[in-house]
Amino acid sequence: MKGRPTLAVVGATGAVGAVMLQILSQRADVWGEIRLIASPRSAGRKLSVRGEEVEVAALDEAAFDGVDVAMFDVPDDVSARWAPVAAAKGVVVVDNSAAFRMDPDVPLVVPEVNAHTVRNRPRGIVANPNCTTLSMIVALGALHAEYGLRELVVSSYQAVSGSGRAGIDTLREQLSLVAGTELGTGPGDVRRAVGDRTGPFPEPVALNVVPWAGSLREDGWSSEEMTVRDESRKILGLPQLPVAVTCVRVPVVTTHSMTVHARFQGEVTVDGAQEILATAPGVVLFDNPAAGEFPTPADAVGTDPTWVGRVRRTLDDPTALELFVCGDNLRKGAALNTAQIAELVAEELA
Ligand SMILES: NC(=O)c1ccc[n+]([C@@H]2O[C@H](COP(=O)([O-])OP(=O)(O)OC[C@H]3O[C@@H](n4cnc5c(N)ncnc54)[C@H](OP(=O)(O)O)[C@@H]3O)[C@@H](O)[C@H]2O)c1
Would you say the pTM of this structure is higher than 0.90? Predict the structure, then answer.
């Protein structure tokens, strides 16, 4: 390939797309032309990337002419239809949707954990993991490399932007509906104030926590919970790893948090785990409760690393650790990881 590769950002107008344009403007620039693509609704809009205004094109086959790498930040059905079209034209697709993540011919890549798998892409597609998995997996990958993971129990506290622009708009609207009212004193009062403005969520998310994300799967599990289980296994290369997940939506705009119980092959120590986390690429250890230091979404939002704190050895099991983890679901959880994968591909094409 001659010169710098041409990049297409498909879904440039969405919640992930907007963060992607910021990230492309902030990271070392490896790209030649950057083409912005969205639905016909957005064609002709101008968006800023690398300090230039670029016109958005409608998604069609011709939009991929001359493109080397395409990042797809669009709904699953749009990726399922259009990623193979782009790949058939020789474009390497880095897909942020769930359409291909569990396809055995599509690598599921987190550069800090399994960068080597990016080269093996028989379908010309590389998948980016789900934001919930991504918000914790860099820290877990580092601990697994040293201690050998045996079991995971995870509870998530997920931000509304995990449901895209619709999720953010819904929380903002609900907050305005409940503002200044005396709510939280009787059953159903928040629900009455919010009415049918629940957007993509099954219950009000303002002044509430909702133990649900995704759609219903077998035996009461949610699709998001199954996703975190399946993807963690695939990324870590541990297909039999016991993983139990409960996903909960909270009234935070951006940054997913998680409590993690991780059991390993042998005994672990807090000092050892802290040393691994403090030196792991892509991880920040923020763990000094005596000084009031532990990560919160308000600290982690807008930043790249996975933040880890509250590192404790499980009281009744010297082989297990308890952690609290925060990661920006739109940066490492989506756009940043996609950009990192695309840069690995660009390096390979050079
Ligand atoms: N939000 C997160 O935390 C997160 C994290 C990881 C992965 N993801 C995944 O990333 C993808 C994008 O999510 P998002 O949160 O950014 O969603 P979003 O805010 O709803 O944005 C969707 C994007 O897709 C475009 N689009 C929709 N239908 C299209 C069509 N028929 N043809 C072409 N473009 C179309 C939209 O363009 P218009 O503006 O023109 O409609 C918009 O740019 C999804 O697969 C999501 O599951 C999201």
Answer: yes
